[in-house]
Design brief:
The complex is a heterodimer of chains A (122) and B (410). Chain A is α+β, with helices and mostly antiparallel strands and 122 residues long. Helix content of chain A is 35%, strand content 34%. Chain A has one domain: Alpha-Beta Plaits. In chain A, the strands form 2 sheets. Chain A has a 4-stranded antiparallel beta sheet with strand order 2-5-1-6. A two-stranded antiparallel sheet of chain A has the order 3-4. In chain A, strand 3 and strand 4 form a beta hairpin. Chain B is built from 19 helices and no strands. Chain B has 4 domains: 109 residues; 109 residues, no CATH class; 65 residues, no CATH class; 73 residues, Alpha Horseshoe (Serine Threonine Protein Phosphatase 5, Tetratricopeptide repeat). The chains are: A alpha+beta (122), B mainly alpha (410).
Chain lengths: 122, 410
C-alpha cells in the first residue's frame, strides 16, 4: 500500500535550504532520498517552496477570498511530501522516523486513499 | 485536606504502583489467567486509593490495601459475569484469604510466571516486549507505542489481542520445565534486551523517555536475576546492559555531538556500573555455560578494559565475536565482527565479511552501511565510501549520528 509522508518544517529548516548543496540540510536529505530509492520504496514526492510563497483561496457565499501565505498559521509548515510503497503502517513509521525532518519538525504519515480515487476517476 | 497532603497521597500511590505493579498484576492474573482483567482491577484499585487515602489516611500497608481492593473488584466482576464453571476454583483461590489481611504482605511473587507468559511462543514475538512493559512495569500503550514506533491505537489493539490470546488460548502461568527452559528463557531475555535497545537508541536528544526505558530494562533484569539467581545468561544480560549504561555520559560531547565508543573518554564512564557489570560477568562465567549475552558482555568488558590499559584488545574482541557467530549468527553480530576484524587484521578482511552478508537482509540495516563506509574510506575507495555513507546517513534515525556521518563523508 502507499503512504504519504507529509513533511512539516520549522522556519530555521526553510532558511537552511539556501545552502549551496554541501550543507548538512541538503546532505541529510540527499542521503535519505537515496536510501528510499535504493530500498525500492520510493514512489514520488517533491519539496515545496517556502510557505510565504503560498496563496490560499476560499469562496464563501459566492465571494472570493484570497489570502497571502499558507492555509494554516502554524510554526511548522508543510515543506514537502513523499509517497512510499510499503507493506504496512509500521514500515511507514520506521521510514518517517529516519526522515531528517522528524528531528527538527514533524512528519505525518497518511495512507493514500485508492478506493476514493477509484470512485472519482471511474 | 491541604495541597501538600494531596501531593503526599499522589506520591504514595505512585510509589506503590511503581514498586508493586508487576507483583500485584502477576499475583492477580496467575489464578484467573486474565491479564487484562487483573490490570483493570489494579488500575481501579489505584483510582480508589486516590479518593480513599486522602479521606482515611494512607494505609499501614498500601500494597495489601491495593491487593484486597483489586481482588474484590475481580470477584465482583466474576460474579457479575456468572463465571464459567472451570474458573470456579480460581475464584475460590482468589477469595480464600480475602479477610486475612495480615497474609497479604506475604503473597507469593509470581512475576517470573508472568514474564514467561509475556514471552510465550504462542504470542507474536514482536509483542513480547510491549506486553512485558505493560504487565510487569505498568507502562501505558501510548508510551510503549512511541518507543516501538507504532501508532498508539494499533499498539493498544495489539496488546488487547495478545492478552485475549493469553486468556482464551490456554497459555499457562507457570515456569517452564527444565527441558524447555533454555529456549523459553531466551525469549524472556530477548524481550528485556529489546526494551534496553530502544532506550539506548532513543537517547538522541532532549527526549528522556528513551532513557527511562533502558533503566526499566535493567530493573527487569534485576528482578529476573533475583528470581533465577543461577542462570548464567541472566547474569550475562545484566552485565551487558550495565556495561553499556556505564558509558551513557560519554556518548555525546559537550555540544551534543556523537562520540563513537573507541573515541570516548573513559574518565566519563561510570566505574561503579562497570564494576557491577564485571561482577555479574564473573559470576556467569563460573557456570561454564557461555551464551549469547555473556559473550556480548565479554566484548563490552574488553572495551571497558581500555579505562585501565589505554588500549583495545581487538584480537580478544574478534575471538568473542567468532564464538558469538556460532551461537547467534545475526546481521548485527556479523557487522560487529567485520568491524572488529578490520581493527585487528585490516580493513580488507572486515570488508570481506561484509561482502559475504546477504544484501537483501541489510538493505535497511543502518550499522552495516556505517561500517562499510568506514572500511571503504580506510581503503581509499572514496566513491564507494561516499555511496555507503549516504546510505548510512539516509537510514540514521538519530540526528547526532546523522551529523557525525555527514562530517565523515565530506
Amino acid at each position: 500500500m502507499q503512504f504519504a509522508l507529509l513533511i512539516y518544517e520549522s522556519p530555521q529548516a526553510f532558511a537552511s535550504r539556501k545552502g549551496d548543496g554541501s550543507d548538512a540540510y541538503t546532505g541529510a536529505w540527499r542521503a535519505y532520498h537515496k536510501a528510499l530509492v535504493e530500498s525500492g520504496v520510493f514512489v514520488g514526492g517533491d519539496p515545496l517552496e517556502v510557505p510565504e510563497t503560498g496563496t490560499t483561496i476560499r469562496i464563501k457565499e459566492g465571494k472570493r477570498g484570497v489570502q497571502d501565505g499558507p492555509y494554516a498559521d502554524t510554526k511548522e509548515q508543510l515543506g514537502g511530501f513523499t509517497i512510499l510503497e510499503l507493506p504496512s503502517l509500521d514500515a511507514a513509521l520506521e521510514w518517517a522516523a529516519r526522515c531528517p525532518a522528524a528531528a527538527y519538525g514533524a512528519v505525518e504519515v497518511r495512507p493514500l486513499a485508492p478506493e476514493t480515487k477509484r470512485r472519482i476517476v471511474e | 485536606m491541604t495541597g501538600s497532603d494531596d501531593e503526599k497521597v499522589h506520591r504514595a500511590v505512585e510509589r506503590v504502583a511503581r514498586e508493586s505493579y508487576g507483583r500485584l498484576v502477576a499475583y492477580l492474573s496467575v489464578h484467573t489467567r486474565d491479564l487484562a482483567g487483573a490490570e483493570d482491577a489494579l488500575s481501579e484499585a489505584l483510582l480508589k486509593a486516590l479518593t480513599a487515602w486522602p479521606r482515611d489516611g494512607i494505609p499501614q500497608n498500601p500494597e495489601a490495601w491495593l491487593l484486597t481492593t483489586a481482588r474484590r473488584s475481580l470477584i465482583d466482576f466474576f460474579r457479575h459475569q456468572r463465571v464459567v464453571l472451570d474458573s470456579e476454583p480460581d475464584l475460590l483461590l482468589l477469595t480464600r484469604d480475602l479477610t486475612e489481611d495480615t497474609l497479604e504482605t506475604n503473597y507469593p511473587d509470581e512475576r517470573l510466571k508472568l514474564l514467561f507468559v509475556c514471552a510465550h511462543p504462542a504470542i507474536d514475538p514482536a509483542m513480547h516486549t510491549p506486553l512485558m512493559l505493560q504487565a510487569v512495569l505498568g507502562l501505558d500503550a501510548v508510551r510503549i507505542a512511541g518507543a516501538f514506533l507504532v501508532a498508539p491505537k494499533t499498539m493498544g489493539q495489539r496488546l488487547v489481542r495478545a492478552k485475549t490470546k493469553i486468556r482464551d488460548g490456554g497459555i499457562r502461568f507457570e515456569v517452564p520445565e527444565k527441558r524447555e527452559l533454555p529456549e523459553r528463557l531466551d525469549a524472556v531475555l530477548e524481550a528485556i534486551y529489546a526494551a534496553f535497545g530502544i532506550g539506548w537508541d532513543d537517547m538522541a536528544g532532549a527526549d528522556q523517555r528513551g532513557r527511562g526505558l533502558a533503566e526499566e530494562a535493567i530493573w527487569l533484569a534485576r528482578v529476573l536475576l533475583q528470581l533465577m539467581p543461577d542462570e548464567a545468561e541472566v547474569q550475562g544480560l545484566l552485565s551487558l546492559m550495565l556495561h553499556c549504561e556505564a558509558r551513557r555520559a560519554a556518548r555525546r560531547d559537550g555540544d551534543g555531538h556523537y562520540v563513537p565508543l573507541s573515541e570516548q573518554d573513559p574518565k566519563l564512564w561510570s566505574l561503579s556500573f562497570i564494576e557491577e557489570a564485571e561482577c555479574h560477568l564473573a559470576e556467569a562465567f563460573k557456570c561454564g555455560r557461555p551464551g549469547r549475552f555473556q559473550l556480548e558482555a565479554a566484548i563490552q568488558s574488553v572495551h571497558a578494559e581500555r579505562a585501565r590499559s589505554g588500549r583495545i584488545e581487538w584480537t580478544a574482541i574478534v575471538r568473542f565475536y567468532e564464538q558469538l557467530n556460532r551461537v547467534s549468527p545475526t546481521i548485527g553480530i556479523r557487522t560487529g565482527y567485520a568491524a572488529a576484524l578490520a581493527e585487528a587484521n585490516g580493513a580488507e578482511e572486515g570488508l570481506a565479511v561484509l561482502d559475504a552478508i546477504n544484501q537483501d537482509a541489510v538493505s535497511a540495516y543502518q550499522p552495516y552501511w556505517a561500517v562499510r563506509a568506514h572500511l571503504l574510506q580506510r581503503l581509499g575507495r572514496s566513491a564507494e565510501a561516499s555511496d555507503a555513507y549516504d546510505r548510512a546517513i539516509g537510514l540514521a534515525e538519530d540526528s547526532a549520528v546523522r551529523e557525525f556521518l555527514l562530517q565523515k563523508r565530506s
